[in-house]
Amino acid sequence: MKSYFKQGIQDTSQPSVKCVMQTKEKTHDTDLAIALWFYDSCIPMNVVNSPLFPIAMSKVASMGHGYTWSSYHSMRVTLLKDAKTSVSLIIAGYRKQWEETGCTIMSDGWRDARQRPLINFMVYCSKGVSFIKSVDASGIESNAHNLCNLFGEIVEFVGPQNVVHLVTDNAANYKAAGRLLSERYPSICWSPCAAHCINMILKDVSGMPHVSNLITLASRVTVFIYNHKWPLNWLRNREGWSEIIRPGATRFGTSFIALKSLYDHRSDLEALVISSDYQKMMSKLKKARDVKQICLDQGFWKNCLITLNVMSPLLKLLCICDSDEKPSLGYVYEGSRAKQGIEKLFRNKKDLYKPYTDIIDTRWDNMLRKNLHAAAYWLNPVFQYDEVNFKNDPEVMAGVLAMVSKSSDAYHCTMELNKFGEAEDSFGMEMAATTRKKMRPGKISNHIYLCSLF
Question: Based on the domain organization, do 208 and 181 belong to the same domain?
């Protein structure tokens, strides 16, 4: 306190802003102390990106001088109980949202370090995702009947009247269990994981002989560059250089992402292999000569571009479905238009585009051609009000009507759908029109409702 009052604590004069502002040295010392704590405790640095981190720092600053952290015992007992209570209140708020707008149950099967088959159950609503529980399926025979009973327990916990959608793995037993559950609860729709389905399409495409050969050649170039110090340093000294993305072992989409990254570095790689230094330093290595031949092969780069153009729509959809930034259900059905893009790319030559479209048809029709996806597509303002590209065919409308028939008030829903399709009432407001492609549908409706109050 004395540092703020030059004449003593009893001084009644108001201190100036400059007087109470911390110096750069004190700010730096505080930042350094927090950083050293992170480094010493091996705390991941991305913790600072957590939305809770600035809240915690603000709370500590508001306590003022003399605040000391609680004890180890409080951290593991008292505060842990309070945190659990706080999270329970958040989940209670989510449950209200489940009752108002419905929710989606998601199951995720995986194996832990002891190779136990575990199934995680989560519930998604517009407010967020909440974890329900994890089930050890070691003692459960994974047939359709047993899985259906397991899913049924989760549905009963959430409330059958609150569940709209069930998402599971793509395995045959999960598909059968999903169908049985839909029969038991007619208001619930089942669908497999869209991101996994798209990954399976990418896997099948990457297995085509000419695509597999292309990925092998691209990988050969990337492995050579990163296994040899001199060419890697030469490339890193190039102006505007960025690292080549290398394919991962777990996701099939990464092979095509890595292929695009290599194509983006085409000019740098061509400059490398034709340089005189490359000839002097690397000419004796057979792999270096092979890499030079690949990088100067115009057919290789042409095939890269064609493959990337073919897979680009599916890669974009995969990014949407595999992201937590916005709901993806309203975008899945649009992925079926990827076939039209492929046919157009090959100028409608059936012998060229058919191998690709056959793969998409096989996976898409069996997994993602659902009424729910068609209805979500029709209800997405991004597509509904796009007069040029909107696909308003009988299949889409059949999906919309099938979902409306599950509602307890089908007549009211039908009337609202007509208003939405014709952009009447609040759907036609200028504010709604300007936010169709900028805000999520749920956010748009809430925004319009709040503005209508004024």
Answer: no
Looking at the structure, do residues 171 and 100 belong to the same domain, yes or no? Answer: yes
Same domain, 225 and 340: yes
Q: Which two tokens stand for residue 40?
A: 């010493």
For residue 172, count other CB atoms closer than 10 A to its CB: 9
Token reading at 369: 């051609």
Count other Cβ atoms within 10 Å, centred on residue 124: 18
Rounded Cα gap, residues 16 and 233, in angstroms: 54
> What is the spatial distance between Cα 339 and Cα 313, in angstroms, rounded to a whole number?
9
Averaged over 5-28, what is the pLDDT? Answer: 61
Range of the domain at 389: 371-454
pTM as predicted: 0.72
Q: Which two tokens stand for residue 256?
A: 């095509």
Instruction: Tell me how far apart the alpha carbons of residues 286 and 298 are, in angstroms, rounded to a whole number.
Output: 20
* Weakest mean pLDDT among 156-160, 165-169, 391-395, 399-403: 391-395
Report yes or no: 189 and 229 within 8 Å, Cβ to Cβ: no
pLDDT tens by residue, 329-353: 888 887 777 778 888 888 888 888 8
Q: What's the token pair of residue 69? A: 């952290």
Contact 307, 211 (CB under 8 A): yes
Residue tagged 């703020």 (tokens): 4
169, 175 contact by CB (below 8 A): no
Looking at the fold, whether 111 and 121 belong to one and the same domain comes out as yes
DSSP readout, 49-83? GSTHHHHHHHHHHHH-TT--PPPHHHHHTHHHHHH
Q: How far is residue 133's CA from residue 119's CA, in Å, rounded to a whole number?
A: 8
- Same domain, yes or no, for 263 and 322? yes
